[in-house]
Design goal:
Helices cover about 30% and strands about 20% of the residues. The chain contains three helices and five strands; from the N terminus they run βββββααα.
């Protein structure tokens, strides 16, 4: 097991400040995931800004994990594969916002799928 690092997160009501071992890394971090289990050290994963550069002046020993945004493709494919085509068609045709214009049916299907994906 590696030596734990001191992680600090401060919120002033408007913005967050993130520090590792006393070093402010806020400008390089876009999100922080914290997972805590009883009787164990919390696990902190810092997600870097899209530039993906970490400050070269940061000097510490740490087991660093960089979170990667998951690819939505596999989840979307699994969602679509689980649908019953007849149920999708019935729901789209029953929509109040279905328009009788070119692309109207497809638009209704897409709106219906988006609602279902959001859990509506």
């Amino acid at each position: 097991m590696t030596t734990p690092n001191r992680f600090q997160l401060h919120f002033d009501g408007r913005s967050y400040a993130v520090a590792v071992d006393g070093r402010d890394v806020s400008e390089h971090v876009t999100a922080v995931d914290i997972h805590a289990v009883t009787h164990d050290l919390p696990r902190v994963v810092m997600h870097l800004r899209p530039t993906g550069t970490w400050p070269t002046a940061l000097d510490l020993l740490a087991q660093v994990e960089v979170g990667v945004t998951p690819d939505p493709g596999p989840a979307a494919a699994a969602f679509l594969e689980a649908l019953d085509p007849l149920e999708v068609e019935r729901a789209a045709l029953a929509r109040m916002d279905l328009e009788n214009v070119p692309g109207g049916g497809t638009a209704a299907v897409l709106r219906q799928l988006a609602e279902w994906a959001r859990g509506a």
